[in-house]
Amino acid sequence: MSIKWRLENVIRNIAKIIRGINVFGSGIEPNIEVDWRSVYLVDLLNALSKNLYQIVIAIDETQILRMLKGFGKVDLTQILTYTYDNLSNVKVILTGSEVGLLHGFLGLENPKSPLYGRFIEELTITPFNRDASVQFLITGFRQYGIEVTMSEILDAVDKLDGIVGWLTYYGKY
After folding, report:
1. φ, ψ of residue 160 in degrees (nearest 5)
2. Where does the ATPase domain start and stop, copy by copy (predicted)?
């Protein structure tokens, strides 16, 4: 089984779950249609690497991608390893709310994992304390010109327990 065939299947599987592409700072969310049958991820990454000074690929809730693993599917860690080893101007940011599953998926401490022994930078975001949670929501609402009572903010802080993702989600909706 060639790596191109396997990567093509990964792209097809990923394309089924991608909701969109966000270009930071552009104020737009482009609608891009691609014939996924003719795209190979390694070729795409190589082309991006050759034509851009630096590219950052950010994948949120990365632990979900572990479901692509299995019979007839590709271990996405192989793609990450290829990128790490061969494309120095491509940076990958992986985020996840289920840290244990994310670590298990990446297999950084598993000698059988393609990513074993590779250096990573890890940033752990701990829950905010009560005061930081209140200030976070006040600042966010102020930045967006939304008026909220202090009792609403305190109620949200009590329920969301300082978890940054939930505070952000609350502030957004």
Report:
1. -95, -5
2. 39-166
**Buried b vs exposed e over 39-70: b needs ≥16 C-beta within 10 Å?**
ebbbeebbeebeeeeeeeeebeebbebbebee
Q: Which domains does the chain have, with CATH numbers?
A: 3-106 (3.40.50.300), 130-172 (no CATH)
State the Cα–Cα distance between residues 101 and 98, nearest whole angstrom: 6
- And the tokens for 156? 């949200």
The crossing angle, in degrees rounded to 10, of helices 3-17 and 41-51 is: 80
Q: Which residues contact 108 (CB under 8 A, 6 or more apart)?
A: 115, 116, 118, 120
d(CA 134, CA 147) in angstroms, rounded, equals 14
Q: What digits encode the pLDDT tens for the residues 14-36? A: 555 555 555 555 554 545 455 54
Secondary element (H or E) of residue 58 = strand 55-59
Q: Across the strands, what pairs with 58? A: 93
